[in-house]
What does this fold into?
Amino acid sequence: MTSPLPPAPKFGVPVPLTPAPRVLTVLATRRSTSAVTLTSTGPSPAEIDTLIRLATRVPDHGKLAPWRFIVLEGDGKAAFAARLEALAAARGDQTAVAKLAKLKIPPLAVAVISTPRPSAIPPWEQQLSAGAVCTTLLYAALAMGYGGNWITDWYAYDDGARAILGLTDTEQVAGFILIGTPREPPLERERPDAAGLVTRWAP
It folds into this structure.
């Protein structure tokens, strides 16, 4: 459980920028946790509210809030997974059924839904903002001491699954953020060589 957070700043109030070395440490060791190792307990209702509050503090060109959240937990998540399983089983797709383990096992899943608004802001930028929401939600969960994993899988794109989730034709699943208490710490994986990915532009 995380320590109490300060209240959200009021609109127009200066927000001081202060060094936060602990945040850098968290980022330097950040590691997603395998979804099938995430068990109870998950975040409390108050913690879920906090996670979503933090996730909305992302860059958002035009202040459009082009995203929304669907919280899946308890009986609701079990019913959602059961309907997805029935959908896949009716098609004889056992591979899709097996992939539902990632969704079934963790105690909490938050679906981040990209909801582009009619605007001069390009849809791509609005989708990027939804991706930033996923990242921030994942990082906030890890900072609370939970394990987390960002997945999409077939039920993020399948028309039948999207209908079960209640998406409109213009919405997309940016990600399912799976959260719980890990049974074991995740192992570090190979990371890219950052230096090899950087160029410096010069005239």
Observations:
- The longest strand covers residues 172-182.
- The chain has a mean pLDDT of 96.
- The CA atoms of residues 25 and 147 lie 16 Å apart.
